Amino acid sequence: MNEDTRLITLGTSGGPPPRAHRAQSSNLLTVNGTHYVVDAGDGVARRIAKAGINLREIGTVFITHHHDDHTAGLGTLLSVASDQNRTKPIHVYGPPRTAELVTAAVQYFTISAEIRIADGGRSIPLAQVFFGHDVGTGMIYQDANIKVTGVENSHFDFHEGPAAGKHKSYAYRFETPDRGSCLPGIPVPAMPSPGLRKTPICWSRKPLHAKAGWKRWLMTVAGKP
């Protein structure tokens, strides 16, 4: 087995304003030829295409939290994969309300999907391909390539009133066959908002992905985002 792990930072732009030459937060983890997307900000589909990956090959997506700079490209990513006639399920995992997010994306693109089916270019309705999963902390996913555990970070600690504690933001740890041990926690700078603190994240042998702020400078970069 070719135990090869690679991470590409697809988008590194934080915050909702669009940038002319940068995509919003998104990352592509590839293990033994299987692709996993971590966050799906605006521009994720274009950046995956630029990386030379067929969007039809994307089957698993992880969302760290539901700010739109981490989710705005999710619907397009799913729809384009379906436009290329992907028939295997695409599963999206994330904090509570991820299933609701995926359902909304399916609803948004259903009109286009119905037209594509009528055109003869697509065969299966979106709702039969896309599935959202609300997850908690601890181990949230495992297959032959990766084991994913999540912890809640401090991204939304400053919320007050009715919103306090309602929304969740996670950091994820990915363990792969060739990167299975853990180094001491690496503090990732937190977003400069009131009440946020630096959150130490325990990585695998090579850092793969953690969301505890806006910075992605610890990851391997392939090309400009």
SSE map:
Blueprint (H helix, E strand, L loop, with lengths): L4 E7 L14 E6 L2 E7 L3 H7 L9 E3 L5 H4 L2 H10 L6 E5 L3 H22 L10 E5 L3 E5 L4 E6 L17 E6 L10 E3 L10 E3 L24
Helix pairs in contact: 3-4
Explain the overall architecture.
This protein has 225 residues and is an alpha/beta fold. It has a single domain, classed as Metallo-beta-lactamase, Chain A (4-Layer Sandwich). 19% of the residues lie in helices and 25% in strands. The protein contains 4 helices and 11 strands, in the order E-E-E-H-E-H-H-E-H-E-E-E-E-E-E. Strands 1-2-3-4-5-6 form a 6-stranded mixed sheet. Strands 7-8-9 form a 3-stranded antiparallel sheet, with no helix packed on it. A two-stranded antiparallel ribbon has the order 10-11. Strand 2 and strand 3 form a beta hairpin. The longest helix has 22 residues. The radius of gyration is 17 Å and the shape is globular. The protein starts with a strand and ends in a 24-residue tail after the last strand.
Tell the overall outline.
globular
Would you identify the CATH H-level superfamily? Ribonuclease Z/Hydroxyacylglutathione hydrolase-like
Total of DSSP H or I helical runs spanning 4+ residues: 4
> Any guess at the CATH architecture?
4-Layer Sandwich
Largest sheet: 6 strands, mixed
Uncertain residue ranges: 180-225
Radius of gyration: 17 Å
- Can you count the beta strands? 11
Q: Tell me the series of helices and strands, N- to C-terminal.
A: EEEHEHHEHEEEEEE
CATH topology: Metallo-beta-lactamase, Chain A
Mean pLDDT: 79
Overall SS class: alpha/beta
Q: How many structural domains?
A: 1
Helix content: 10-25%
Instruction: Estimate the strand proportion.
Output: 15-25%
Provide the spatial order of strands within the biggest beta sheet. Answer: 1-2-3-4-5-6
Separation, N- and C-terminal Cα atoms: 31 Å
Q: What is the highest CATH level, the class?
A: Alpha Beta
